[in-house]
Every structure is written in structure tokens, then in C-alpha cells.
Amino acid sequence: MNDFLHKLPEFVGHHPWLSLLFVILLAAIIVGELMRLMRKYKELTPATLTQMINRENALVIDISSYADFEKAHVPGARHVAMSQFDPENKDLAKARDLPVVVVCKTGQTASKAALRLVKAGFTKVFILHGGMYSWNQANMPTAKGRG
Asked: Which of 28, 31, 79, 140 could be cross-linked to 69 through a Cys-Cys bond (beta carbons 3.0 to 4.6 Å apart)?
């Protein structure tokens, strides 16, 4: 280790661009992780989502396209198109104290909907990490059709 520290300034001197790229990538990773830890919603694995549905009666909202929802969705999930997703909806407002899990095809769109729920005052907001793709990869059961 001591030898490494003595040779580090020489390496940085010979490879400034490589060293700068390393520092930038390291900073990006640290910032990304800090942002993930500080956000107001959490990510769930398929197994954790199953436990939450069974133990806490979680409300699962699928914001995938209607065609994707009909092909396969988490059993018991309710479909709401992202364009019609309104956290202030009176039916959804009734679930303000329940755990609410947002699911989409890959998990990217679900994070946007989760942020909207948090801003609307929901306290137990989750997304399925990896969306329906991870659900299917875990060989979890799916429902087809309208639900």
C-alpha cells in the first residue's frame, strides 16, 4: 500500500486525462448514491413487494401502457395511464395512509409517478425496482387481461 501511494503522483502526472476521468466517475457515483438515499420513496424487489401485498394490503398501481398491462401485470394491480395519473384523485386519496407501490414496464416511469405521490402527501410510497421486467425475471406470477 505504501508503494502504491508513492507511485500515485507519478501515475497522475503521466496520465492526467485518465485520472480526471476517474475522479469525475467517482463523483458521479457518489452523487447518484446520495440522491438515491435521500429521496422520499423506496425501491422494492419482487419478493419484498409480494410480502408487502400479503402483509400490509399494499395498493399496486400499474402505469404501463394499456397493451403492456393486458399482457402481464402484478396480480391485483390497478391500471392507470400515466397521462391520467392524478395523486389528488378522490379514490386514490383514500389510500393516502396505505403503502402505495407504483409499477411500470422498466421502473423508469414509476419513479416520476412516485415523486408526484410524495408531493401530494403520500407517506408510504414505493416503486418496483426494474418494473415488470424484474417481476418476470424473478418468475413471479402474473395476471393477464384487464385485471
From this structure: 79
**What CATH number belongs to 41-137?**
3.40.250.10
End-to-end CA distance of the chain: 59
Q: Which residues have C-beta within 8 Å of that of residue 132, sequence separation ≥ 6?
A: 62, 64, 68, 72, 73, 74, 103, 104, 105, 106, 142
Q: Where are the domains of the chain?
A: 2-37, 41-137
pTM of the model: 0.77
Span 20-55, pLDDT tens digits: 999 999 999 999 888 877 788 899 999 999 999 999
Rounded Cα–Cα distance for residues 27 and 12 (Å): 17
